Amino acid sequence: TIMQYVENLSDRQTAEAVRGNIAWKYALSLPLTDAGFDFSVLSEFRQRLVQHEAGERLLNAVLVELKGKGLLKARGQQRTDATHVLAAVRELSRVENVGETLRQALNELAVLAPDWLRAQVTAEWFDRYGVRMEYQRLPKGLQERQALGERIGQDGYHLLEVYYQARAQGQVPISEAVEILRRVWVQQFWCDAGRVRQREVDHMPPVADWIRSPFDLEARYAKKRETEWVGYKVHLTETCDTQTPRLITHVATTPAPESDSAALSLIWHDLAALDLLPAQHLVDAGYVEGPVLVAGPAHYNLDVIGPAPQDQSWQARSEDGIILAHFVIDWEAHTVTCPTGQVSQGWYPSHSASGHPTISVNFAARSCRACPLKPRCTKGPARFLTLRPRPLHDALQAARQRETTDDFKTTYRARAGIEGSISQAVRVNGLRQTRYIGLAKTHLQNLASAAALNVLRAMAWLNEVPVAPTRQSTFARLAA
Fold first, then answer.
1. What is the pLDDT at residue 466?
2. Which of 283, 338, 311, 305 is nearest to 397 (CA)?
3. Which of 77, 108, 202, 263 is placed for a possible disulfide with 177 were both Cys, Cβ 3.0 to 4.6 Å?
4. For residues 343 and 337, what is the distance between their CA atoms, to the nearest angstrom?
5. pLDDT confidence of 479, banded at 50, 70, 90?
């Protein structure tokens, strides 16, 4: 499997390479007369790995060997970054999605209970759902497409009603596709006095929870800056010490909308189990949050190095605004003093919209109204502050201060090389596009890709092949 990803082959091509390629036979210690195996063996092997949650063995076995050879050491520098992975399904509009969901249910029932299904549908259903639902076949007008969507919704409700009645009477077997249909219909439709209507976006679940395709229920929509995709996200962690090869030590595959910082606790836990924790972990701004800055040193004895979240208030964007750092906080007395010496009058433990603990602090309106700094401090009657618990607050302020130092800038330069690793994984292993359906199998693919890259990098290191420089176009090189 690792060799398959070294050369980015399909299952059929891999089985053929084992059967007919002398180099592969030599690497696998097979006699020249070995007849090989059927390509389906590879799929069965992956299925066993997924079923037993043993996919990590693909990468960990390579890491153990590299560690034993002295090519991989703990307590150095490591860096992490993420990139998007496209699902192995096409992106569907809302009408295409519900149409394909109903069509999948009909296709499955046509196998499980053909005679029963034939009695439940009309001739129009065969015209409407007999072929794949594609955008170019949909009505061009917005109202016509909406009417088609509601027609599909009505048909789906009819199928659900008659199916569950038949299930109660034991006439039809259990259908997974019908359960998917039910879940999608809950998200997409509602009934108004017997009429089926498509839900407005404001009345649907959060976008991150939408089922985007009936063929991959775990693929999700996400957007990062200008990039939009349906699929997953993969986080690669690699060593970046100068005296050893750059090796991938961890792979985390997450739903596409999940925040980067949520992956760090998993990464550290797994690296600790392999005794591969770094002393310094270089990450970009998406990973750096207060809890991360606290947990890294406290629980794993490592230093998180990355751009800290900045103050996004209008005061911080103003040249002379009064920001939180200008206030003096007395955590024991539960008071805050402003730059003019006024002391807060309220200190209230609370929670943010996301459920995290915060502290609300307010000043007296009469003091703020008379303050000469009020235009630089607040646009309301009085200044209001939201604080994080002290450990998070102190860690965040310290990170912001360190970010301004020359030592930070020098150390952080080493993080930039992770983009080259992602680029190599995309070009060599096809990391950008998953071959399989579902989060677990996508993660297995990413683990195999990482193991393959480690093999290639160890070979290059032992053969003293230098790391390639950043690629430039021929025109850009003229400026050198």
1. 86
2. 311
3. 108
4. 4
5. confident
